[in-house]
Design goal:
255 residues; alpha/beta; Nitrilase/N-carbamoyl-D-aminoacid amidohydrolase; six-stranded mixed β-sheet; 5 helices; 14 strands; 30% strand; globular
Length: 255
């Protein structure tokens, strides 16, 4: 069985939900009808700054922008993976939403926070898997890739893919690609990473260049396909027989 996946590599604006939502909407509307799953970067809707300004744009799960994602997924019959800063009554989280074509929303909260995130966000506590068009998939966010324990906890026969939203800096993109490939091989599964590109250049926040180089890693750790630094969408086929062949060969789930 084959499924079609779009990896959407974007430049984003900090603290500009409507602008970023319009970008997501445009990318999804441009997808061919046969695309089953579209994966977007970390912080896609809100951007991120490590100070109180992020509170003004953080989104509740039942907010209007999340409702629009539900409507978009339903209307285009495509599953979406989209990052945002989530607001609850008491806390802020780095969140990644999986929105299925029926409009149901599952949220993963990043468990390992990076640098300035620790001063304003609360780490998540739960691993999350979702049933997707490419099988049961674990959700991870950016720096989570560095923690082998996360990969080990998701190394199960029923987890056939990792979906990773990233905002990985340009200075370390070799690490981003290496870790995606390693996490694919760890669990003999697909690893699909959508990374942010462009720059964060906003007064009062450290200037940062994002690395792009979004990647689809094969279950044997090889590169199935990837992007450079361009702002574009990568569309590719995921063939379930590739996973079956590699799992038969490596045998980690047959002992």
């Amino acid at each position: 069985m084959q499924s079609t996946v779009a990896v959407c590599q974007l430049e984003l604006e900090e603290l500009a939900v409507e602008t970023n939502l319009a970008t997501v909407r445009e990318r999804v509307e441009c997808l061919d009808d046969d695309v089953d799953l579209a994966v977007f970067p970390e912080h896609t809707l809100t951007g991120f700054v490590a100070d109180g300004r992020i509170e003004a744009v953080a989104l509740a799960r039942d907010s209007e922008p999340i409702e629009e994602l539900r409507s978009l997924a339903d209307r285009r019959d495509v599953a979406l993976v989209v990052g945002f800063v989530e607001a609850t009554a008491d806390e802020l989280y780095n969140a990644t939403a999986y929105v299925d074509p029926a409009g149901d929303v599952t949220v993963y909260r990043k468990r390992h926070l990076w640098e300035g995130e620790t001063s304003i966000l609360t780490p998540g506590s739960e691993l999350v898997t979702v049933e997707t068009p490419i099988g049961n998939a674990g959700l991870l966010t950016c720096y989570d890739l560095n923690f082998v324990a996360e990969s080990a906890a998701l190394t199960r026969a029923d987890v056939t893919a990792l979906l990773v939203a990233g905002a990985w800096p340009a200075a370390y993109t070799e690490n981003w690609q290496l870790l995606l490939r390693a996490r694919a091989l760890d669990g003999v599964r697909w690893a699909i990473g959508a990374n942010r590109t462009g720059e964060r250049d906003i007064p009062g926040s450290r200037r940062l260049t994002y690395g792009g180089r979004s990647l689809v890693a094969r279950p044997d750790g090889g590169v199935h396909c990837g992007l450079d630094r361009q702002e574009r969408t990568l569309v590719t086929e995921i063939d379930s027989s590739v996973l079956e062949t590699q799992r038969d060969l490596i045998g980690v789930f047959s002992t």
